[in-house]
Amino acid sequence: MGDPQVTVNNLSKIEEGKPHTLSFMANPKYEDYVYSTLASVVIVNKTFIPVRPVKTTLIKVEDAYQAFTKLLHTYNGKNGHHVTGIQQPSYIASGATTGENVFVGAFAHIGEGATIGKNVKIHAGVYIGDHATVGDDCILYPGVKVYQKCQIGSRVIIHANAVVGSDGFGFARRKDGSYEKIPQTGNVVIEDDVEIGANTTIDSATLGSTIIRKGVKLDNLIQVAHNVEIGEHTVIAALVGISGSTKIGKRCIIAGQVGIAGHLEIADDIIIGAQAGVSKSFTTPGLTLLGAPAYEVNESKKIFIATRRLPDTIQKVAKLEAELEALKKKLGNDGK
Predict the structure, then answer these.
(1) Which tens digits make up the pLDDT trace of 221-250?
(2) What global pTM score does this model have?
């Protein structure tokens, strides 16, 4: 629908569309912008039927969001993501192995015995420790630190200043109240197609491995403690903290600022609302949890409603107590 000869040379949000740009509309709440946008082309779902005249050219597809995502991948690929070569100064140990078409940025360090797959992009200031493994087609952005023996799968993206494999928070309390550090001898295993946000930290296991399963997406500023396991395709928003040895299931959704205590089990397909405090295991799949401490959503709503009524309830109780005291005095005087 529109001009089949139209050309575009950039991308834009539909509400900020400019001539010669391409945008998309997948969420119905943005429909009004279809009629007013200056974007030259807008990708929409096949189910979209305009109710007013449309000035822009529409391209109808099965899934507008997925189609636009594929275009973004293409756009990114033409903007610096195909760089190769070794910049100097950088350090690659003589015993390290690197695959074809690798890019190593300035001041990067690749340790002894490390293995780097093909098409990997290692940006400036990245540290990869001894005997660490990075699979094919990964991107490690500036300042990423991967400690010794950690294993990273293929097509993993790790954003700036994330740390993989730092020591877990393990200390034994002595009789005098001081603490002795417990050696952290394990590693971190990150499977394929994982994305890790900037400044996120994933601690090495005390023994064994901290494991981030296939397809997990971690936002910025997340703390994953030692021996945690996060199941396939789970997504976790910023400022979440997960304590040691907790196991999180597949396809879970964890909103921002959630705190999860240690040695717990979270079943598959569980949704945890923002700022929840999870202090016990939830082993029934598919629950939605809210609140601190976290409860199943219906129970949490009851608690929330009861909490909102507390001021009125306190006033009523105080009034009843006063009336009871007055009644006691009256009965006492009558008894005399």
Answers:
(1) 999 999 999 999 999 999 999 999 999 999
(2) 0.86
Backbone angles phi, psi at 290, to 5 degrees: -140, 155
Strand pairing class (295-296; 288-290): antiparallel
Give one DSSP letter per residue of 234-263, joined into a string: -EE-TT-EE-TT-EE-TT-EE-TT-EE-SS
Q: Which fold would CATH assign to domain 10-77?
A: 3.40.1390
Cβ pair 34, 14 in contact under 8 A: yes
Q: Number of C-alpha atoms within 13 angstroms, CB side, residue 156? A: 28
Residue in 82, 109, 226, 233 annotated catalytic: 226
On whether the CB atoms of residues 91 and 110 are closer than 8 A, the answer is yes
Every domain of the chain and the residues it spans: 10-77, 306-336
- DSSP bridge pairs for 293: none
How far is residue 123's CA from residue 329's CA, in Å, rounded to a whole number? 81
Cα–Cα dist 9/198, whole Å: 30
Instruction: Give residues with Cβ within 8 angstroms of 174, minimum separation 6.
Output: 180
Annotated active-site residue 226? The verdict is yes
